[in-house]
Amino acid sequence: MSAAALNTIPTDLSTYQLTDQFVVQRANKEDLAEVLAIYNQSIPGKQATANLALVTLEERAAWFEEHLDSATRPIYVVKALPSDDVDQNKAPIVAWGSFSDLYARTAYNISTEISIYLHQDYQGKGLGSLLTRWMLTQAPSLGIRNIIALVFAHNHPSLGLFRKLGFEQWGYMPEVCDMEGFIADVVMLGKSVTSDDILDKASETI
What we know:
Layout: H1 3-6, E1 16-17, E2 22-26, H2 32-42, H3 57-68, E3 75-80, E4 93-101, E5 111-118, H4 127-138, E6 146-152, H5 156-164, E7 168-178, E8 183-192
């Protein structure tokens, strides 16, 4: 993909079918509150983030806008399809994932950190794997060659998820986070992706 194409921010919000129950699309400016609510659900458990206090809309606004304004570092939201004739645009967000800069230097632009968060009512049902697999298919079109997941060593479900999807351990950082009650290690998992990883069914637009 050309540099010009990579620098072009998508203007549409194409919706992609994940299953009969879920669709995924790039986040828009109205999604911040729901995205933040799911993120804040993860904080008390001390497994998914190093934030120890709930985050406010004001604190998260700049981060959200930065992703919305980026052509290559999107936030994707998963919506649960309504069972009746309710407007799909009003369907609740039940999960989200993002690609973020691994390091703020130009040469690192081919590598990115992936983050996945699920609403507590949708955990343990395979949705995390579904969203992660779909994001892997999108990475090559964003100019991404390497995807890195930074996971607490005590977060066994997430470690299992990424390893099941072919991520390998690329690093280990012992005792780097004070979680106010225990000291946590962080595992760096990585996976290289190419255009060959794109699945036709993941590109089905509705």
